[in-house]
Amino acid sequence: MAAGMAVPDDGRMSAKRPGPIVVFAVTMAVVVASWVSWLAGGQTVADAAESYLLTNSAMAVTFTAFGTIVLAHRPRHRIGSLFVAYGGFYLASVACLGVLSGVFTLSPGWERAVDVFGITVWVPAVTVCLPLILQLFPDGRPLSPRWRPLVVATAALLVLTPALTLAPGAINAEPIADRSPLLPEAAGRVVGALVPVFVGADALVLLAGIVALGLRAYRSRGTQRLQVMWLLWAVVVFIVLNVQRIVTTDGPILFLLTLPLIPAAATVAIVRHQLYDIRLIVNRSLVYGLLTFGGIGAYLGIVAGLGVLARDHLPANSLVATGVIAVAFAPARLGLQGLVDRLMYGRRHDPAQAAAQVGTRLGAGLDGVLHAVCEALRLPYAAISADGRLIAMYGERPEVRHTVALEVADGPSADLLVGLRAGESRLSAADGRALNLLAAPIGLALQAVRLSEQLRESRTRIVAAREEERRRLRRDLHDGLGTALTAVTLKADAAHNLQSSDPPRASRLLLDLRADLTDAIADIRRLVYDLRPPDLDELGLVGALRQRAEQSWRREATPFTVTIDAPDPLPSLPAAVEVAAYRIATEAITNTLRHGDAGSCRVTLRADGALHLEITDNGSGRGPWRHGVGLRSMHERAAELGGSLTAGPTDRGGRVHALLPLEGR
Fold it and tell me: Among residues 451, 482, 514, which one ends one of the domains?
């Protein structure tokens, strides 16, 4: 399409665009008229093949037909216009052959002019239109601004086209009646010198067009890459089928009859590139192409080898070769099919290998895992979604996607979203099996990421709690203990100054000083207790809990008893575990006293690889527990040590259970 032009496409040829249809109708009318004239003049179909009427008619009809289809869907599209121009050059040649069929009576001069024009007019189609199609496909623009001079140079070759006809001896091999020179001898030598220049330049621009098409396929993405793959596939197939004629300029007519494959593929790419999966077509072309040429080569090699070894002793060597090839065909086909499938679809037919490939990237994070999934299955897009949002993504999001549920141990459920390959409308069974197997390692990777995030959040909370504790200590020491000690110092100085002049007042100051020191000592004990209860060092965890039960946990209105159930002796515990267990137990029992209606509470301690702390009561436990400051602090204390805590009502009362890992066990 021309630059800056956007034309809507509804997928159907519109009746409001009659121009392309008229062009095709005129082309068909000229071709039919030329054939009627040809046959009426006494010529045969064999004569038509020899004089290129048959092949030129095929070029005119097919290229014009595909060009009109493109222009009907994309008006003024440059590729469609080039197809029509290509067909028009061949149509002019067909018309000339129809005029020369013998039906019309022409003077010798006019007959010679029409004859020469007919064998020359088709040349720009191959030398100018075809290279431009390769250079401008699929959007009608060069690959980049640096490729524009090549487009100009290709169009300029149109000026040199007459050199192929006017050069001395250029028309000697053509099927015309008068082969006399068209130019004087001197002018003919000049034009003849231009012929190698024209041929070399045409070969260069044609090769550059193929290179530009390959680079466009390499650089493009998405829809444009699929479009380019269509034309590139057609060009490769055409070259492979006609390599002998391209090299030797001689060969079967197949060379010409397969050329319309190029406009056919280009038209599908422009108008309906998703009609078929070009990747599947390339896959099958590679498989059967390699099998065909491999089979022919193997057959010739075996026959030649057996002929050398057996000479005249094994006259049936060709039959033996055929048998060997028949036996080897199936394994060879499977091997080639597997190779091409790996190139096009990755490891989808070997899910275990795909899972192993993804497993090696589990340490690279979710982005690395998704990248590995796309590499393993040759998918264009992969993402992980949870709670309605994308957690990680790799590749460009396509229009068609498939969802696979992930198995995640903890946390909300998640899905793996994969983009289907272009041209695919649904996920194949092989891809589905591979993705179902890959769901397990991807779920593990997601779980690892979540645990890492939780650990990072936990560390952040620990650092914040530590800083908050330091701020509290600083405030208590500065505002409480610091102020009290300052007052003690001032009173001591005053008592010293009044000792001789006013002994009674000095005595009162000393008494006040003693009271202030007593308060300061109480503050110090409180600060120390908040850091680590002294009873833990003196009595141990079990003894500290029992002493706290005897001294502090009482209820005035109704009786309340606390029972400590622990082995004697309890194994030696790390200091951090003792403090966490003590704080969790005291907080749980305090919450029971404040908010519950229980009459008794039991604290159970058990140590194996971890310390199991359970606090149960006989309250009614109605309704779920509200997660307040106390319950949150118990959870945080257990999490700080890498443990866990569960709390809530049961059918027998309230229950708090903490699992605290023991270091070194």
Answer: 451
Scanning the structure block, which residue is given the tokens 């045969």?
44
Which CA distances in Å does 518 have to 115, 249, 658? 129, 115, 38
Q: How many CB atoms lie within 10 A of CB 112?
A: 17
Q: Do 621 and 590 belong together in one domain?
A: yes
If we measure between CA atoms, which residue out of 140, 184, 148, 147 comes closest to residue 166? 184
DSSP H helical ranges for 8-147: 18-40, 45-50, 53-73, 78-99, 108-120, 123-124, 130-136
Domain range for residue 503? 464-531
HSE of 402 in the Cβ direction (CA atoms, 13 Å)? 19
For residue 555, what pLDDT band results from cuts at 50, 70 and 90? low
Q: Provide the 8-state DSSP code for 482.
A: I
Q: Is the pLDDT of residue 11 over 50?
A: no
Token pair of 404 as six digits: 């696979």
**Domain shared by 589 and 497, yes or no:** no
The pLDDT tens digits for 234-268 are 888 887 777 766 666 665 555 667 788 888 888 88
In a domain, 589, yes or no: yes
User: Under the phi-then-psi rule, with left for phi > 0, alpha for psi from -120 to 50, and beta for the rest, what region is 42?
Assistant: left
| pTM, to two decimals | 0.49
Residues 554 and 524 grouped into a single domain: no
DSSP letter string over 188-218?
HHHHHHHHHHHHHHHHHHHHHHHHHHHHHHH
- Which 3-state string (H, E, C) describes 130-166? HHHHHHHCCCCCCCCHHHHHHHHHHHHHHHHCCHHHH
3 state DSSP class of 601: strand
Q: Are residues 363 and 316 in the same domain?
A: no
Element (H, E) at 467: helix 429-475
Determine the Cα–Cα distance for residues 434 and 377; give it in Å rounded to an integer. Answer: 8
- Domain identity same for 89 and 50: yes
The domain boundary, picked from 407, 426, 451, lies at 451
Give CA 427 to chain center in angstroms. Answer: 15
CB-based contact 259:241 (threshold 8 Å): no
Assess whether 474 and 515 both reside in one domain: yes
Torsion region of 642: left, alpha or beta (phi above 0 gives left; psi -120 to 50 gives alpha): left
Higher pLDDT, 617 or 455: 617
Is there a domain that residue 80 lies in?
yes
Calculate mean pLDDT across residues 457-462. Answer: 76
Residues 431 and 506 in one domain: no
Q: C-alpha angle 639/641/645, rounded to 5°? A: 40
Q: Which of 174-183, 202-211, 642-651 has the lowest mean pLDDT?
A: 174-183
Within this chain, do residues 484 and 503 fall inside the same structural domain, yes or no?
yes
Would you say 49 and 93 are in contact if contact means Cβ atoms under 8 Å apart?
Answer: no
Contacts of 127 (CB under 8 A, 6+ apart): 157, 158, 161, 198, 202
Q: How many domains does the chain have?
A: 5
pLDDT at 505: 83
